[in-house]
Amino acid sequence: MILSTCSNGVRELRDRFSSLNSRVGKVEKNYDKSAARLTTLEEKIADLENRSRRDNVRIMNLPESVEAANLTTYIIGSLPVWFPSLSDVKPEIMRAHRIGPPNNSGRPRTVIMKMLSNTDRDSILRAFRKSPIKLDGKDVRFAADYSAFTVNRRRSFMEVTNKSQKMGFQTFLLYPAQLKLMRGSAQHVFKSPLEVEDFLNGLATQENEEGNTSYSLLERKWVEWSH
């Protein structure tokens, strides 16, 4: 009697456990689907936000003491001085403002410039790449204005970018967040830092085995695959 009762109890527990496993499996599948949908929605929202910011330029490390009363007027007058190549182009700035309230950290707040068009934005960014500037002994940086989601994705490539450059690659961070590597005639484009890491590790192993740092078999395979 006792043995029969225990056997029935074990059977019931086994059935419940099997049912629980089945439900957990369904929950995991639904979670994976929801996570994929969430990622897709985040990317769509980020793309919309990036489009709304495509005429903007960010200026970092611009001292707050230089602008006097009107920041927009100061920048309009300073651009031809900073970048003489823009004297003929004359990008049109609609407005400029600093992000956030004044602070006592000593670090200048980032400036957002709203340009008349993304053509004006690109003119300024091209000029900056050719002629970096310093004010009060500090490097002033100009960059495109992206959503926080896109900025974080682009920032995630920083470590593998440095590693790629040490291995002799030219690096290009493509929009919205892809890394292009070039070395010799080889070109590779990666969608995630993990892809880059796997490629570089495999390449380093291959080159150590071959003793040839110019152009390895693995690189040739990647070129064939990418085409």
From TrEMBL:
Q: Which domain of life is it from?
A: Eukaryota
Coiled-coil regions listed in the entry: 10-58
Which keywords does the record carry? Coiled coil
The record ties this protein, via InterPro entries, to:
Transposase_22 (IPR004244)
Q: What is this protein called?
A: L1 transposable element RRM domain-containing protein
Question: Which organism encodes this protein?
Answer: Esox lucius
Q: What is the name of the gene encoding this protein?
A: NPVF
